[in-house]
UniProtKB/TrEMBL annotation:
Pfam families: Ribonuc_L-PSP. Signal peptide: none annotated. Belongs to the RutC family. InterPro entries: RutC-like_sf, YjgF/YER057c/UK114. This is RidA family protein. It comes from the Bacteria. SUPFAM superfamilies: YjgF-like.
């Protein structure tokens, strides 16, 4: 059975859950929004920090942590931002690292966004 993960993240106006768990796998996509639903200002560093904070919060709400990550897909709009994203990612996610991909995209649904992360994690369904 698929269950939504209850978080303290801003309630999206879009028809979505910030995360779901099914068959012990957490599925989530995180963006750089604050508790008011606004995309944070301050460029790629601020947006990456917020996205990672939202990811960590979601993992914790699901009963896990970054050590449960199995795969992370990172989307950015500018190739030159990957060095900053990698540096900040490495501050949060430690070895053994999950599988990862980085993809350059032309843009996101919210045009002020510079980064988005899609993540999968192994979560104990009893949590």
């Amino acid at each position: 059975m698929v269950q939504p993960v209850i978080t303290d993240l801003f309630a999206s106006r879009a028809p979505l859950s910030w995360a779901t768990v099914g068959n012990g796998i957490l599925f989530t996509a995180q963006i750089p929004i604050d508790d008011q639903g606004e995309v944070v200002s301050g460029g790629i560093e601020a947006q990456t920090r917020q996205t990672l904070d939202n990811l960590v919060h979601t993992l914790e709400c699901a009963g896990g942590g970054v050590e449960n990550l199995t795969q992370v897909l990172i989307y950015v709009t500018r190739r030159e931002d990957l060095a900053t994203v990698n540096r900040l990612y490495a501050e949060v996610v430690k070895a053994p690292y999950p599988n990862r991909a980085a993809i350059i995209v032309s843009g996101f649904a919210r045009e002020e966004m510079l980064v988005e992360m899609v993540a999968y994690a192994a979560i104990d369904e009893a949590s």
